[in-house]
Amino acid sequence: MSVVRLGAVEYLNARPLVFRLDRLPEFDLRFDWPSRCASLLHDGSIDVGLIPSIEYLRPPESARGADAYRIVPDVAIGSRGPVASVAIFTTRPMADVRSIALDTSSRTSVALTRVLTTRVFRVAPELRPHGPDLAAMLAVNDAALMIGDRALVIEPGPQRIGDRELFVDKIDLGEAWFRATGLPFVFAFWAGRAGAIGAAGVQLLQRARDAGLQELETVSGEYFANEPALAALGARYLRDNIRYDLGADERAGLELFYRYAAETGVVAAAEPLRFF
Prior knowledge:
alpha/beta, D-Maltodextrin-Binding Protein, domain 2
C-alpha cells in the first residue's frame, strides 16, 4: 500500500482517532486547524483529511463526478447531546442577540450556528468572523462561537470583558441540536477523493479509533502533558461527550444537517453520503 497523506485536526477530540498512527509506515500524518484540514484536502495537499462535515458539500471541481469525495465508514467525531467544546458564549438571551463573532478555525460549527439561529433560536444576528479570543469577540459582539480546546475549558459565569465584568452564558450546540432533532450531530469525519485509500487503509483507521477509545486517559495525558487537572478533564470529555462512530443514527443526523444547511442557504445543495 502506498503512503497515504493524512491531515488531522489538532484538537484533543481528534487524538483518539489517530492513536499511534504516526508509528505506521502506511501513513504520513500532519495536524492543522479544522478549516485548514479542509483546504488541504480541497487543493490536493493531503489524500485523506479529518474534515469538518460541512466541507463534504464544498468540493473543488477536481473532486466531483467519479472522483467525488468518499467517507471512511464507521468513524467520526460527533456527539449525542452536550459536546462541551462547541458553544455560543452570550452576554444576553439568544432572543436578544444581534451579532455573533464566529471562530475562524471552524466551518461545520459556523454552519450549525446558521442552522440553529434560523430554525431553533429564531433570530437573524449579524455573523462576524473573528479570531478565537473570547474577550475580544464579546467586546464588540453580543455573543461568540468558539470551538475546540478553548471552548472546553470556558465555563459560564462572570467574565472580564474590557473594563467590564459581564455574565456569560454557554449554549452547547451539540445539546441544542439534539434537543431539536433527537439525533446525534456529526462534526467531522475522514474523507478523500475516490481511490485515495484502500480497504487496508480504511481498516487501519478504524483500528486506530478502536485502540484510542481503549486508551482515553493515555490520550488526554499525552495531550495535556504535565497538566494533571486538564488531563483529567480531557479524559472525561472524551469519554462522556464525544462519540466516534458513524452508525445509522449518526448518518441520519448528518443527512438532516445537510438538508437544513441547503434550506438555510449555507450550501447550494445536499449530497448523498458516499463511502470508501
